[in-house]
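Person: I have long wanted to understand how a fold can be written as tokens. Underneath my words sits a plain record pairing an amino acid chain with its backbone structure tokens. Those tokens are not coordinates but codes from a learned vocabulary of shapes. I should like you to check that the lines agree and flag anything odd. The protein I mean follows directly.
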Amino acid sequence: MNKPKIFNWLDFFTFGMLSLAALALTVFVWFSQVQFQAKALTTVVALTFSSIYVAILIMRKKSIDSADFYTFNGWAILNQSSNTNIHPDMINAEIERTINLWKKVIEWNNDCDAAIAKNYKVIFKDGILEEYPGGIKITGNTISSKFGAFDGELEIGLAEKPIEQTAFAHEIGHVIYNGKFGILDNEKTHAYMAEHNLP
């Protein structure tokens, strides 16, 4: 299982490196003959950057630990719906079912494997997620992310329906399509799904 890690290189090369640089400068300044105000200023700067970096790590850990469970491919599942019948076997089976449907219509490659292995957070919520003018109702949403504990988020309207009747398979398809073609575009993905009779 590819569960997210608390440590992240992107954070380290931004706030982590800044924290280390500020701490090193603070140590140097305290052993030099500069005025106390300069020592106090560098200490405040170092503590500020270090606090931000520590806060990022704590928030990431809380986010990782907030999952009800993790799937076989490392996706965090959070059930915020009133449907209490959400369990790992059901979710894993739906992910595998969707993968197998896509394998029939596309040449499965390392990019698809990498897309499915990315760390996504899947949040199940009650009913319709959004309703647009003209009666268009959205029951699923996929959001990509570069920062945070997860690479993206899938929001699924659930209510009391079986998992196969939700937008979960459809949103998994968005992840697979993005992995295969490098495009996270609704219209192109939906056209491809319709052409190949995918959920």
In short: The mean pLDDT is 86. Strands lie at 69-70, 76-79, 120-125, 130-132, 136-138, 140-144, 152-157. The helical segments are 9-30, 36-65, 88-103, 110-117, 168-181, 186-195.
